[in-house]
């Protein structure tokens, strides 16, 4: 009774093309956003457990939001366009470092012509967005081989990006403004004169970014472009035959996905880490993002959120539960256990539920539709 | 001469890809598992007073059994249920397998660095009279090359001459067609993973002697991916030649190029090389041409 579409008639084209055509979904979304935007800050303000301490905001919600954003980017490429990537960590790094360079001022001396390209330090917001744009350009460059090679070969090509950029940011001192330790400090987060410093402000900032990008992505994947991507994913030759240009579709997927990953990388560095070194964006991060997408659901924006939440919460649970149950495990065992659980979960999901946890939710919706008279 | 070692790991990849169309990300983890099983059982046996050669034989036997069990488990629980899925799904499932193997291997056998001494690691100096200082040859490298040669010869015979080998190639061509002419696909896959496990064991013994058995072996095994791309995914000789090219290439690049641009380019040189090969000749130097039919 609660989740029923009967009686919701669409009388205009605008209604027919709405992002969330079912009223209950819209209500649920509004409630969710309300909790995220108003509820959490209020709870934190009144020091209500568990929001009273900074721990939840700083160590769980903040990385969750940023990684979910990155996972949306990966999902566009892997889930919607079917181009597997193992280099998403590198793309996050590109976003982070180019945003850093833009925020501290770029100076490229060209000795031969006695001429230098200089960009004065930009404010934080434009440098984050331009960092995303730089990542998009690099992503498109690395997407070009995808026109000739696919699947497994492409995975190796993106792995090349991963190792190459790991090295670049470690060894080329220009990117770190010649910092001797190789680690870099983010500029102060100044948004239109507002200084974003406290955990709750950082949380809200990320929330705004994530909400905007998630809605944009949702809109994109259900439109013309998204359908082209999905056609390429499902069968590229057939897609070409019905008039989809693989060049255009694949490169846009690489561009959009890299843009989002780059923005997430810049946020990760600026807002979450504060000071970082290339190790923060190693191949581990790439695999982690890929896992989020597989576990959450390939080809689902909501799945990216679920996957990110799951990947972040599982290690914490593994830390807490055995101690609560009175069987303390050593940290080493926990790490290994984590590996085993992630690995077997991925195999299990690929076999039983290729669409991840997001599919479980849509199954739940189907069941609710029939409730209380299932057949 | 780490090229020979890359070839050894790449061989495992090629075998599995040739016979089941699965791009096996887990080969590095299998090397780790085999190495850890071998080195730990060796330590245990020697500590209990067995003579060294008995311990070596028993240890290798034990590791081989472990690899057989792993192969069976992978076939039974992961690859078997995914039969007839597309390559990407299978590839991602092997990433899952990687994590399970890495976690399990370290949980059971410990996660420290264990030294392994099976081959002599002394150094020979050749042609001392002809060149000043002579040519430095590591005995281990010679052993590695020798073993790789035997392995390739054996595998070539296995693939070309035996009934199972032919069945393997049939399965690689088309799962469904092979199944429908009565080839027991589960058994074939078990054999393939077993052989890949044994190749991993060989790689682990050579590599472990050089570097000690430790977690970082899995990262070194990632180097086998560009080797594959350069050599061609389906070619056993390609894996060997690719391994040598990468091994020699990255050392030369480090010496001649690395000094100009900051050093440490060994980490990515192989990948960039692979990327270049991909752009020119996507099927690799020795690979079969990929023909798409509609």
User: Strand order across the biggest sheet of chain B?
Assistant: 1-2
- Structure classification of chain A: mainly alpha
Q: N-to-C SSE series of chain B? A: HHHHEEHHHHHHHHH
Give unreliable regions of chain A as ranges. none
- Describe the largest sheet of chain B: 2 strands, antiparallel
Task: Please outline the major beta sheet of chain A.
Answer: 2 strands, antiparallel
Task: Catalogue the unreliable spans of chain B.
Answer: none
What Rg of chain B, in angstroms, do the CA atoms define?
Answer: 20 Å
Mean pLDDT of chain A: 84
Give the radius of gyration of chain A.
Answer: 22 Å
Strand content of chain B: under 5%
Overall form of chain A: globular
Mean pLDDT of chain B: 77
How many helices of chain A? The count is 14
Helix count of chain B equals 13
Biggest sheet strand order of chain A reads 1-2
Helix content, binned percent of chain A: 55-70%
- Approximate strand percentage of chain A: under 5%
Shape of chain B: globular
Explain the overall architecture.
The complex is a heterodimer of chains A (375) and B (294). By secondary structure, chain A is mostly helical. Chain A has 14 helices and six strands. Chain A has helices spanning 13-16, 23-45, 54-80, 88-104, 124-143, 152-171, 199-222, 224-234, 236-241, 246-273, 283-296, 301-325, 331-352, 356-370, and strands at 106-110, 115-119, 184-185, 190-191, 194-195, 275-276. In chain A, the strands form three sheets. Chain A has a two-stranded antiparallel sheet with strand order 1-2. A two-stranded antiparallel ribbon of chain A has the order 3-6. In chain A, a hairpin with a 2-residue loop joins strand 4 (190-191) and strand 5. Chain A is globular, with a radius of gyration of 22 Å. Chain A starts with 12 loop residues before the first helix and ends in a 5-residue tail after the last helix. Chain B is 72% helix and 3% strand. A two-stranded antiparallel ribbon of chain B has the order 1-2.
